[in-house]
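Morning!

As promised:
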Amino acid sequence: MIYPFHYREGRLFCEEVDLEQTASTLETPFYLYSAAEIKHSCTVIRDSGRGYDFKPYYALKANFNPALLKIILQQGFGADIVSGGELYFARRAGFKNDSIVFAGVGKTENELRQAVEAGIASINVESRAELYLLSRVAREKKRRVPIAIRINPDIDAHTHEYISTGLHSNKFGVDAETAFEMYLEAAKDPWLEPEGVHMHIGSQIESEQPFVDAARFLLSFIDRLEKAAISITSVDLGGGIGINYNSPFARPEEERTYVKSILSSYLKVFARRRLKLYLEVGRSVIGSAGVLISRVIYTKKTPTKNFTIVDAAMNNLIRPSLYKAHHPIVPLVRNDSNTWKTDVVGPVCETGDFMAREMEMPELKEGSLIAIGGAGAYGQSLASFYNLRPIVAEYLVEGDRVKKISPALSPRELANRFEW
Ligand code: LLP
């Protein structure tokens, strides 16, 4: 499928919608998503799991807008959650309790209670202390709780250090020795059912090798458990499959994510094994489906730099500031203006507030509209009121229709929550 964000005669479209026409009637900045692209990503992920006992779970942390959750739910995905808030959103969006898995290094007693009461598919335990607390909660509630233990394999995922999770120096999961002991203890606990093994080694991983190494590690660990008479029925393979932030708009499917190549190599390690395979994917579901639309406020030249100052900022999209992430930026209307090297920056009072640095792009006039690509995942879900800037509105495109799926949250509304 051709990428839904594509140019027609120099004008950027999302599906059948002319974005400049739409944006000129709306307040910028705003997020805009393509329903077709979300469905397409879901299909690619499901197809990659064909031939296996496979179920994908969507990681709500990537983007929790209910309208988007409903599309993903309809695509047959479960929900991967990390907090009581995400449990609430997942259930309210319609995910069934037995299609919800719960990861996270710091689940509180209250959150464990909620998850046990709901009877979710698996609680993925990340420490000995959590195992004991969960055991107590399960006993109190008189509920047998299916669990997996998250193994930290000490494998380098070669991604940004802030989103690498599978090294022993990272806070996540437990080493294999500790995990083994925990399984032996859990197997004796009448209220815990250690059915699964869990692993998640990081996010925005672009190559197959770390996944294949992790899969082999998991299999030998499962064999070791089998020898100790602990039988494992499911493996939660985590998420982390990268998307391609480099290629321009209007790209073919194969260039958008690494899902196909990575998943086929990852799952192949488990061929001929009778295991249910779960996946927890966020970015590869929603990342390429969203753009942040913004307007140029000013341009300015300094003796050493060119700046394009836009109305989107790090409070809207923090990825460039936090991970030095690259997001493609294109104008909604192409004209024959010269290109120049420019920093694209927001109005927030921090030098770290930028959307791009030293980017070769058209010299845009004040008032021009731009699209910041690859913004569907970890964009709006990390937004804040910093500098008392609003949390912006979100829109969904389906064919030739544009629907508002969340209104902007203004500083005035925030103000109303305080006593003055
Ligand atoms: N499962 C677990 C246990 C996770 O911690 C994560 C992401 C996922 C699944 C989903 O990973 P994905 O398929 O989306 O890579 N804010 C960062 C990404 C943080 C990822 C946190 N964990 C960013 O903007 O790059």
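The radius of gyration is 23 Å.

Hope this helps with the figure draft.
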